[in-house]
Amino acid sequence: APAAKATKRAKAATQAPAGITSPDRVIDPDSGITKGQLAAYYAEVAEPLLAWLSRRPVSLVRCPQGRAKHCFFQKHDSGSFGDHVHHVPIREKDGSTEPYLYVDDAEGMMACVQMGTIEFHGWGSMIEAVEAPDRMVFDLDPDEGLGFEAVKHAAFLLRDELAGLGLKSWPLLSGGKGVHVVVPLDASAEWPAVKDFASRFSRALAAAHPDRFTANMKKVERKGRIFLDWLRNQRGATAVLPYSARARANTPVAAPVTWEELRDVETPARWSVLDGAELVKRAGSKALRGWAVARQALPAA
Ligand code: ATP
Ligand code: MN
Ligand code: MN
């Protein structure tokens, strides 16, 4: 049986879903992972990914020639994605309206992958109510050289401070260097109020623990500290979506974990696109069902 299982896994990893061209193109030179393997991963995790990706304005990180070559963020419809990738008109600061990308099914998601997408980043709001976020994200960005233990410690501290304000939160391994602390919201407040809360919360935490945190995005302020990146919580900002792959060495993925699990995790790149089956199984597990799902309002000032 183990042999059959291994064969099945190898097959799943090499068989590209229909409609994916150049499946043998290596997209990550560090691991040799191909576009076909990436597409197979996305086909596998479609359901848990779409729970976050569907009907949200998205920014795609596209690397048509692989992550070692040119990659770019794309947020507007270029008209080349086909019928399954939709656009939602969103007002810009200057008053004009631009078509932002969104998908609402696996076909749309795979069309993005076919176009060289490696990463999916989402707004904190849904297309039906772009002005009212249903999610706040604290992106913990450690200074170079700070270990993951320090990031974990910071994440637990945020969890406790948020809980003190009546807010439940969940940790997301970014797949890169940090953790995102995700706070689901009931979409009863609009962007300015959410940004204001995130800013005040982060500044207060940095003031209370100046040795460990900064709420200032300037790199020089980060020296040996963790930047509490609250700027993910302003209108137009995005954060990597749960189950998105990352265009980084060995193609890790952004992975939901429980607070209990976080204690033992040793790296934010714990899972990669080769772990699709395990991630799907985890997503359906009792511990992770209901991850970052809660209807909660920001506390009154
Ligand atoms: P890490 O844990 O390594 O920091 P990350 O996903 O948190 O991974 P950041 O550089 O901290 O990476 O960026 C946070 C988020 O900001 C990203 O997930 C992305 O959605 C958004 N972002 C970063 N750079 C850009 C950019 N050039 N254009 C648009 N959005 C960006
Ligand atoms: Mn980050
Ligand atoms: Mn950041």
Task: Please tell me about this protein's structure.
α2 runs antiparallel to α4. This protein has a domain of 129 residues: DNA primase, PRIM domain (Alpha-Beta Complex), CATH 3.90.920. The protein has 8 helices and 14 strands. 29% of the residues lie in helices and 20% in strands. It has a 6-stranded mixed beta sheet with strand order 11-12-8-10-9-14, with helices on one face. A 4-stranded antiparallel beta sheet has the order 4-3-7-13. A two-stranded antiparallel ribbon has the order 1-2. The protein starts with a helix and ends in an 18-residue tail after the last helix. A hairpin with a 4-residue loop joins β1 and β2. The protein is α+β, with helices and mostly antiparallel strands. It is globular. The longest helix has 18 residues. The structure holds adenosine-5'-triphosphate and manganese (II) ion (2 copies).
In short:
It comes from Sphingomonas naphthae. The chain has 301 residues and is an alpha+beta fold.
Gyration radius from CA atoms, angstroms = 19 Å
> Which CATH architecture of the domain at 2-130?
Alpha-Beta Complex
Please indicate the percent range of residues in DSSP E strands (runs of 2 or more). 15-25%
Q: Note poorly predicted spans.
A: 5-12
Number of strands: 14
Q: What is the average per-residue confidence, as pLDDT, rounded to a whole number?
A: 94
**Major pleated sheet:** 6 strands, mixed
Fold topology:
Layout: H1 2-14, E1 26-28, E2 33-34, H2 35-44, H3 46-53, E3 58-62, E4 72-74, E5 85-91, E6 97-103, H4 106-114, E7 117-122, E8 135-142, H5 148-164, E9 170-173, E10 179-184, H6 191-208, E11 213-214, E12 226-229, E13 239-240, E14 255-256, H7 259-262, H8 276-283
Parallel strand pairs: 11-12
Antiparallel strand pairs: 1-2, 3-4, 3-7, 5-6, 7-13, 8-10, 8-12, 9-10, 9-14
Helix pairs in contact: 2-4
One manganese (II) ion (MN) is lined by residues 139, 141, 229.
